[in-house]
Design brief:
By secondary structure, the chain is of the alpha+beta class. Helices cover 49% and strands 19% of the residues. The longest helix is centred in the N-terminal third of the chain and has 13 residues. The termini are far apart. Keywords: 2Fe-2S, Iron, Iron-sulfur, Metal-binding, Redox-active center. Pfam families: Glutaredoxin. Belongs to the glutaredoxin family. Monothiol subfamily.
């Protein structure tokens, strides 16, 4: 199991913004993953999508890594931010853009 944990850890720490999701940013395989992709694309955040459907070990591993039961999961600068509901609420409140900017992640100017 440590192999998958190391992989998750390196993805989380090696990328400013990582979305563990079902499917890929170009082809999300679930509505919740798709919503987070739309939000990140809308605000113009650069992020890496990691498809958890490629491996059952990865799917289970990410839940244990974050202590969070659902996917998608968004990490910014090595920190777990949340799943679809949290990201959507932050976005609707205008907090997501501010949060990313504070973390040094470039986003498009808010609409």
């Amino acid at each position: 199991m440590s192999g998958i944990n190391d992989y998750i850890d390196s993805e989380v720490k090696g990328n400013d913004v990582v979305l563990f999701m079902k499917g890929t940013p170009g082809f999300p395989q679930c509505g919740f993953s798709g919503q987070v992709v739309q939000i990140l694309d809308y605000i113009g955040a650069d992020y890496k999508g990691v498809d958890v459907l490629t491996s059952a070990e990865l799917r289970q591993g990410i839940k244990e890594y974050s202590n969070w039961p659902t996917i998608p999961q968004l990490y910014v600068k090595g920190e777990f931010v949340g799943g679809c509901d949290i990201i959507r609420e932050m976005f609707q409140a205008g907090e997501l853009q501010t949060f990313l900017a504070e973390k040094g992640v470039s986003v498009k100017a808010p609409a």
